[in-house]
Amino acid sequence: MHTLHTVAELRAAVQRLGAVAFVPTMGNLHAGHIALVHAARHRGLPIVASVFVNPLQFGPSEDLAAYPRSLDADTEQLLAAGCDLLFAPSVAEMYPEAQTFSIIPPLADTLCGASRPGHFAGVATVVLKLFNMVQPRLALFGKKDYQQLFILRGLVRQFNLPIEVIGIDTVRAEDGLALSSRNGYLSAPERAKAARLYQTLNTVAAAIVAGARDHARLEREAETRLSEHGWQVDYIRICALATLTAAAPTDTALVVLGAARLGNTRLIDNLEVTSPPHAL
Ligand code: PAF
After folding, report:
1. Residue 173 belongs to some domain of the structure
2. For residue 113, what is the domain's CATH number?
3. Where does a domain end: 168, 189, 206?
4. CATH number reported for the structural domain that contains residue 221 in this entry
5. Per annotation, catalytic residue among 2, 5, 30, 33
6. For 243-257, how does the pLDDT look when each residue is reduced to its tens digit (9 = 90+)?
7. Residue ID of nearest Cα to ligand 1 atom 8
8. What is the mean predicted confidence (pLDDT) over 132-138?
9. Which atom of ligand 1 is nearest to the CA of 24?
10. CA 152 to ligand 1: nearest atom
11. Which domain, by its residues, includes 82?
């Protein structure tokens, strides 16, 4: 596996490889990222991964400086997983001039976007740049970042990019906690409590499956339960899978999403759920 740092080298290498599958990451890789590489391998195309901590998607008071950077360990993991090419550009290589064009995606201000202004514009902008550089046939993203995946599917559709976007199931620790590069911020006592977000989503999902349709009430009760256990809740929302907006009582294909802080660590998670059809 070659590691390349410039766009020119990347373009030349990708041209030699032909059609590729692409796994964009911000590094500090865990089993969730490696699952994306394995899923890419099953598609039978050469795999390009990127490691780039994108400053554009961090707010001024967020963890850009602290975000873990571990390129050597990432390289070893990608090599072992069968990745063919790693693109690890510097900030100057990705943004040689101020990025004054950017993309403001739909849903940029809802769910996680409400408390992270500019985040999804930063994500969409860097992913479009990476797509233009790599020109992949397939791109793989984890479902843990459900809103990101939804927005990037829209990006590809609306800009007619010839790329198939594939969402891969969240990889979880034994207690159910979704693997995340930010889990490393949790103290031991916080880590012991961290699976509660997933458990809370499961409780909401179970109520939906059992026929509950008062979504606002389910959301409120779930938020209260989490707060009572010391979480600062950003949101618990029940959305329609097709639109990622508030689900109507008659919608059946749903996703329950949550974001909450334990101490200084913001965790997100989600669960797709099918509600029983509405009896008329
Ligand atoms: O999910 C991530 O790691 C990042 O948001 C992405 C898609 C690599 C863009 O920087």
Report:
1. no
2. 3.40.50.620
3. 168
4. 3.30.1300.10
5. 33
6. 999 999 999 999 999
7. 25
8. 98
9. 8
10. 7
11. 2-168
CA of 109 to the centre of ligand 1 (A): 18
* Whether residue 38 lies in the annotated active site: no
User: Do residues 150 and 202 both lie within one domain?
Assistant: no
Best residue for ligand 1 mutational test, from 127, 133, 168, 182 (most atoms within 8 Å of Cβ): 127
Q: Give percent above pLDDT 90 in the chain.
A: 98
Question: Which atom of ligand 1 is closest in space to residue 127's alpha carbon?
Answer: 9
Say if 187 falls within a structural domain. Answer: yes
Distance 26 CA to ligand 1 centre (A): 6
pTM over 0.85: yes
Residue 266, strand partner residues: 261
